[in-house]
Amino acid sequence: MKTLQRTFSIIKPDAVAKNATGDILGMIQHAGFNILGMKMLWITKAQAEGFYAVHATRPFFESLTTFMSSGPIVVLALEKENAIADLRKLMGATDPAKAEHGTIRKKHAASIEANSVHGSDAEDTARFELSYFFAGYELTR
Ligand code: ATP
Ligand code: MG
């Protein structure tokens, strides 16, 4: 039996600014993900800090949250079999210099910080991240 799984993704400010949104959405859909929810937002620094609270003690936290609130982002609720792991594979390594060919970060990311996309890394973080940006009624099913 197919078990569908949900994950959460962000097209980050660097990718939105360079008009890569359409291409990244195409790569995500081509890989078999269904888009259950999608919106463009410009979040505040405080909202970015809430989202990345797990990274609060990391040295890059200040810079990361400034970057994530520097311009519009697109937040996505995605569904597919094995969605969490498959999205991470499609995104490629955090550092684009280490990302494999065919990945979103290899194609679009500029640096380890401005790396074009976010994807949840586990079931519990996917649940938290989906609920951070989407209310239940905003998802198509
Ligand atoms: P994401 O959580 O955005 O999907 P990831 O899981 O690959 O990415 P994390 O270790 O969770 O990577 O880091 C979160 C984000 O913080 C990275 O995507 C990147 O934007 C930024 N980041 C990570 N490491 C560094 C670093 N050494 N210097 C600057 N920014 C970094
Ligand atoms: Mg992460």
Characterize this entry briefly.
The chain has seven helices and four strands, in the order βααβααβααβα. By secondary structure, the chain is α+β, with helices and mostly antiparallel strands. The radius of gyration is 14 Å and the shape is globular.
What does this 3D model show about the protein?
This protein is of the alpha+beta class. It has a single domain, classed as Nucleoside diphosphate kinase-like domain (Alpha-Beta Plaits). Helices cover about 40% and strands about 20% of the residues. It has 7 helices and 4 strands, in the order E-H-H-E-H-H-E-H-H-E-H. It has a 4-stranded antiparallel beta sheet, sandwiched between helices. The two termini are about 20 Å apart. The structure holds adenosine-5'-triphosphate and magnesium ion (MG). Adenosine-5'-triphosphate binds next to strand 4.
For this entry, give a set of tags.
141 residues, alpha+beta, Alpha-Beta Plaits, four-stranded antiparallel β-sheet, 39% helix, globular, binds adenosine-5'-triphosphate, binds magnesium ion
How much of the sequence lies in strands comes to 15-25%
Helix percent reads 25-40%
Mean pLDDT: 97
CATH homologous superfamily caption? Nucleoside diphosphate kinase-like domain
Strand order of the largest sheet: 2-3-1-4
Shape: globular
CATH first level: which class?
Alpha Beta
Largest sheet: 4 strands, antiparallel
Helix count, per DSSP? 7
Low-pLDDT runs of 5+ residues are none
For the record, the CATH architecture stands as: 2-Layer Sandwich
Give the structural class: alpha+beta
Number of strands: 4
Give the oligomeric state of the chains in this entry, treating copies of one chain as homo and distinct chains as hetero: single chain
How many independent structural domains?
A: 1
Associated small molecules = adenosine-5'-triphosphate, magnesium ion
Helix and strand succession? EHHEHHEHHEH
User: Taking Cα atoms only, what radius of gyration do you get, to the nearest Å?
Assistant: 14 Å
